[in-house]
Structure formats: structure tokens, C-alpha cells
Amino acid sequence: MIAHPERKYRAFQPVALPDRRWPDARLTHPPVWMSTDLRDGNQALIEPMNVEKKLRLFDALVAIGFKEIEVAFPSASQTDFDFVRRLIDENRIPGDVTIEVLTQSREDLIARTFEALQGARRAIVHLYNPIAEPWRRLVFHAGRDEVKALALKGTRLIRQMADAHPDTEWVFEYSPETFSAAEPDFALEVVDAVSEAWGPTPDAKMIVNLPATVEMATPNTYADQIEWMHRHMARRDAIVLSIHPHNDRGTAVAAAELALMAGAERVEGCLFGNGERTGNVDLVTLALNLYSQGVHPRLDFSDIDAVRHVAEECTGLPVHPRHPYVGDLVFTAFSGSHQDAIKKGMDARRDDGVWEVPYLPIDPADLGRSYDAIIRVNSQSGKGGVSYLLQHEHGFELPRRLQIEFSRAIQRVSDATGSEVTGDDIFHLFSGEYLEQTEPYGYRGHRVASGDGGVTIEAELTVSGQPSTVSGRGSGPLDAFVAALGQPVALIDYQEHALGSGAAARAVCYVEVRVANGAPRWGVGVDRDIVAAALRAILSAVNRHLAAEAGRQQPAPAQAGR
Ligand SMILES: CC(=O)SCCNC(=O)CCNC(=O)[C@H](O)C(C)(C)COP(=O)(O)OP(=O)(O)OC[C@H]1O[C@@H](n2cnc3c(N)ncnc32)[C@H](O)[C@@H]1OP(=O)(O)O
Ligand SMILES: CC(C)C(=O)C(=O)O
């Protein structure tokens, strides 16, 4: 980088629009969507798509619900020409879908374009020529009049050829390419001249597409340019005002949204933002942004992974894991406080169906994603995430203080390995830490008898591997069992719930105990029989205490809160 960028780069001069209206507008309905994946997206690939890939992507775009699809620049290559022919000859274009093709303002190219479109039921012919000053000066060595004349020449040629093929319903689209970099008065002059030459009517509109061929400035600047044109263009009621934002500054989605607020009615872009350089505007993000505001985009992304799969295979470009709405990680929280909030939000889901889960702007299930990945655990995670996975994947609903105790064990592992701890890892650790604590005391069976206002228990145990029978008396089975153990155990907390349902259901018990003057410690037991589960839990807690005391293990003591 250079020390004085102001000597090398000039700030963009925005159009003057002090009474702009777009900031108060709201997006309440979807625009007309036009996918240019097969044209602008395709021209930007290292290896452009072959006909088979184009057919596959075309079918996917139709299935998503696009009604206008720019399928090719047919005069540019035999592949593109052949592709258009296959679509028409094989009758592959549904009745409610219109194909679009692009051409420069050159007679040979326009003639070839019409050749490609022979027999189409309806087609949009899209003419472009660059109009901004640097392109006029550097690329075309032409003045304003010559550039306008080039646009008019192409328009008239297309009119002639369209009139010569009346069996097709022709729609004309004109793009003053490099509009975003052009002087507004000149853009207006060219567009008005073109629309006058074409002669659109409210019943037979033409499309005026105002591209941010190169994104030049902040999105509000583009919105001002669009509103200015929207307010000044002649024959406005006979024109569909379209936008075509590129993403050079990374703000194409914002620019498109503000431009729609400013009066645009139609958007051209690509799936997942493929396209020249940094890409065209990402139509998936735009559509799902609308959806998240309660506006149905009329595009179907209910199996977004399938759409991604087709796009990746056809373009050869991977979708980034953080890509909005579709990336592998976008519905995943690793950090503790986010996980805590998501878990609470998921637990409190509302009966009226209104989505209100913190940190998740839309329900992953609406896009065909499962909830499996919304919480993943690493060293940034906390008790909320760990207990969510245990609950979601294995059914254990840990009491809060046990969550705290156990998440410390997980933290030690994730800190030591520096890696993700999966749901299976967590269950494995949980099992080892609580369910498999059978030394020195292991449970084999029990009998309970009531009478004389109390309970007597006789329990079959293993003590350091040796079978042993102990018995005791108390106010209830747990009390009696503690007495039978002969250990100074005080029961602090007890919770239970069913694990699974039906014939396979088991009970899980969580007990928090203090043995002698030791720190409070949790134990967990699972059994088909609820009393057996509780006895196993007590043994788990006592064994963990003894192990800690003996220094053979270092389980973290529980502390209230953190
Ligand atoms: C912003 C966009 O994305 S626009 C779409 C751009 N897409 C593409 O470029 C992909 C398809 N294009 C192609 O395959 C080729 O460029 C073709 C087949 C169209 C033309 O190829 P060639 O005839 O070899 O020309 P090449 O691309 O080198 O040409 C540029 C010439 O076209 C002229 N030109 C560029 N745009 C236009 C236009 N819209 N209308 C008329 N002439 C134009 C240039 O001034 C230049 O003329 P010159 O040779 O007299 O200096
Ligand atoms: C042809 C036009 C619309 C284009 O692709 C652009 O300006 O980016």
C-alpha cells in the first residue's frame, strides 16, 4: 500500500439528491428476479460451464422459481449458441419462464443472437454498451454522441430483427453498462433516447437495467443514482426498472436492497454471489433477507443444501462456510454465551410459531437444515452448549449445577486438545465421568421393604470387585441406602426424568451429595428401575468423591454460578 492513496485514487462524486425518498421506503414485496448465473456467472468462471452443466443449472433455477433467466451470450461461443438451441429445440423452457440473452451493439453479433433464438416462444434480448467517461475515452475513443449512437444503432437493429420474427414475443432490455460510474445526465440522455427508439408502452414494457458494473461507492450512493433515474426517466410507466449490482466493495446486497427501496423493480444477480471479480449480487441472500422480514421472496430455498450442491458442481466454486444462510457454519454457535441464549430460545419456542431464537435470524429448518449443527463445542464454549448437546443428542437434562461441574471437565479437554469436542465425545466423557464410576462401589441389585413407618433396604454391591450385601434403614430408599453404605453422605439435591419413551424407556437420576466435609459432588445413574437409578447415582457421587480424595482423579468441585 502507498502512503498517500489520495494521490492515486479519486473519491466518487455522488449525484445530488437532497430530497431523496428511499430512506423511508420499506421492502414489502419481492422484486422480479432475474438469474444471470448462466451468463454473467458463467463468463466469470475459470472453466465456463459446458452444455450439460448449463442444462443442470437451468433446471435448478427453474425449480427454485426464477421466471427470467439469462441463459447465454449466444454470439460469443458455440457452446452458448448450442445451449440456447437445446433449450428451444428440446422444449425445455416452461411456459411461465422467459429466457434472456445478451449481445453487444454489433450487427453480426445481433444477427447471430436472433439466429440462436429462432422459434422461442418469448425471449428477452439484452443489449449493452458501456457509457461512463473512462470507457468512452480509454476503450472506445469516442465522445458522448458516438456512444449514444452505438446504443441507438443496436436498439434499431434489434427492433428490425424482432419485427422480422413476429412469432416470438420479444422483450427488449437495455443496459447502459458502467452506469454506476457514469455521469447521471448522460445516463439519462442515453436511456431516454433508447426508450424513445424502442417505443415501449405500459402494456409492452421494456426493461432498463442500471448496472453497478463496478461498485463505485457506498450503497446509499447507488440508491441515490437509482432514485434519480426513477424520478427523471421518460416513459417511466412503460419501463421495468432493473438493477444489476456487482460486489467490488462487498456491499452489493446492501446496494440492491437500497436500490429497490429507491424504485427499482427487478434484480439481476447470481446464486451465492458468483460473477465477475467479487461477484454479482447474491440472490439467495437478498431473497432470504426478505424472508427473514416476513416477506415471501417467491423463490424456493427450502432445500438450500441441494441448491448449493448444484451450484458448486456446475461452477466449480465452493461456497464459503460463513456465507449467509447457506454456509456450513452459519447456524452454528461455538461461543458459550451464544449457546446459552440459543438453548434458552430453543427451549422457549412459542406455540404461535413466531421465531424468536437469539442469534438465529431464521429457523434453519425452513431451509432444510437440521438443528444438529446449531451448537458445536470447543474451548470457547460453555455449559449451555455442552448441556444442549447432551440433551439434544442423548436426552440428558442436566441440573444447572451439574452442567457447571461437567462443562469444566469438557473445558479441560478442549483446552488440552485445542479441537472441537463432538456430541459423541461429550457423551463419552459424561459416561466416563459419571455413569461408569463403579469403583470401589458397584451396583448389582436391591430389595426394599416398608414397615414400622420406615423403609429397609438390602443392596447387592461389588466393593472393590468383591460381591457384598449391605442393608440399612431410613425414612425412604435413598436414606436407607446411605445408611447401608456406612459413609457420611449428605444428600443436597436430587432430580430425575425419563430417558426415552415406550418399552425402551429408562430413568435417569442426578444426585448432588457431600461426603464428610468434602466438596459437593454430582453422581448420575441410569436404570430401567427408578430406585435402582437413584442408588447408582449415589454410588457414582460417592465413588467420584473417594477417587478425588485419593488423588487418583481430579474432578472439578461444583460451585454455584459462574
Ligand atoms: C459487463 C459485462 O459483463 S458485459 C458482458 C461481457 N461478456 C463478455 O465479454 C463475454 C462474451 N464476450 C466475448 O466472448 C467476446 O468479447 C465477443 C465474442 C462478444 C466479441 O469478441 P471480439 O470480437 O473478439 O472482440 P473483443 O471482445 O476483443 O472486443 C472488444 C471490441 O468490441 C467493442 N465493444 C465492446 N463492447 C461493445 C458493445 N457493447 N457494443 C459494441 N461494441 C463493443 C470494443 O470497443 C472492441 O472494439 P475494437 O476491437 O474495435 O477495439
Ligand atoms: C451487461 C451488463 C448488465 C453487465 O453485466 C454489467 O454491467 O455488469
From TrEMBL:
<feature type="binding site">
    <location>
        <position position="40"/>
    </location>
    <ligand>
        <name>Mg(2+)</name>
    </ligand>
</feature>
<dbReference type="GO" id="GO:0000287">
    <property type="term" value="F:magnesium ion binding"/>
</dbReference>
<dbReference type="InterPro" id="IPR005668">
    <property type="entry name" value="IPM_Synthase"/>
</dbReference>
<keyword id="KW-0963">Cytoplasm</keyword>
<dbReference type="InterPro" id="IPR013709">
    <property type="entry name" value="2-isopropylmalate_synth_dimer"/>
</dbReference>
<feature type="region of interest" description="Regulatory domain">
    <location>
        <begin position="437"/>
        <end position="562"/>
    </location>
</feature>
<keyword id="KW-0479">Metal-binding</keyword>
<comment type="similarity">
    <text>Belongs to the alpha-IPM synthase/homocitrate synthase family. LeuA type 2 subfamily.</text>
</comment>
<dbReference type="Pfam" id="PF08502">
    <property type="entry name" value="LeuA_dimer"/>
</dbReference>
<dbReference type="Pfam" id="PF00682">
    <property type="entry name" value="HMGL-like"/>
</dbReference>
<dbReference type="Pfam" id="PF22615">
    <property type="entry name" value="IPMS_D2"/>
</dbReference>
<keyword id="KW-0432">Leucine biosynthesis</keyword>
<keyword id="KW-0808">Transferase</keyword>
<feature type="binding site">
    <location>
        <position position="246"/>
    </location>
    <ligand>
        <name>Mg(2+)</name>
    </ligand>
</feature>
<dbReference type="InterPro" id="IPR036230">
    <property type="entry name" value="LeuA_allosteric_dom_sf"/>
</dbReference>
<dbReference type="InterPro" id="IPR054692">
    <property type="entry name" value="LeuA-like_post-cat"/>
</dbReference>
<dbReference type="GO" id="GO:0005737">
    <property type="term" value="C:cytoplasm"/>
</dbReference>
<dbReference type="GO" id="GO:0009098">
    <property type="term" value="P:L-leucine biosynthetic process"/>
</dbReference>
<dbReference type="GO" id="GO:0003985">
    <property type="term" value="F:acetyl-CoA C-acetyltransferase activity"/>
</dbReference>
<protein>
    <recommendedName>
        <fullName>2-isopropylmalate synthase</fullName>
        <ecNumber>2.3.3.13</ecNumber>
    </recommendedName>
</protein>
<comment type="function">
    <text>Catalyzes the condensation of the acetyl group of acetyl-CoA with 3-methyl-2-oxobutanoate (2-ketoisovalerate) to form 3-carboxy-3-hydroxy-4-methylpentanoate (2-isopropylmalate).</text>
</comment>
<dbReference type="InterPro" id="IPR000891">
    <property type="entry name" value="PYR_CT"/>
</dbReference>
<keyword id="KW-0028">Amino-acid biosynthesis</keyword>
<feature type="domain" description="Pyruvate carboxyltransferase">
    <location>
        <begin position="31"/>
        <end position="305"/>
    </location>
</feature>
<dbReference type="InterPro" id="IPR002034">
    <property type="entry name" value="AIPM/Hcit_synth_CS"/>
</dbReference>
<keyword id="KW-0460">Magnesium</keyword>
<dbReference type="GO" id="GO:0003852">
    <property type="term" value="F:2-isopropylmalate synthase activity"/>
</dbReference>
<dbReference type="InterPro" id="IPR039371">
    <property type="entry name" value="LeuA_N_DRE-TIM"/>
</dbReference>
<comment type="subunit">
    <text>Homodimer.</text>
</comment>
<dbReference type="InterPro" id="IPR013785">
    <property type="entry name" value="Aldolase_TIM"/>
</dbReference>
<keyword id="KW-0100">Branched-chain amino acid biosynthesis</keyword>
<feature type="binding site">
    <location>
        <position position="244"/>
    </location>
    <ligand>
        <name>Mg(2+)</name>
    </ligand>
</feature>
<feature type="binding site">
    <location>
        <position position="280"/>
    </location>
    <ligand>
        <name>Mg(2+)</name>
    </ligand>
</feature>
<comment type="pathway">
    <text>Amino-acid biosynthesis; L-leucine biosynthesis; L-leucine from 3-methyl-2-oxobutanoate: step 1/4.</text>
</comment>
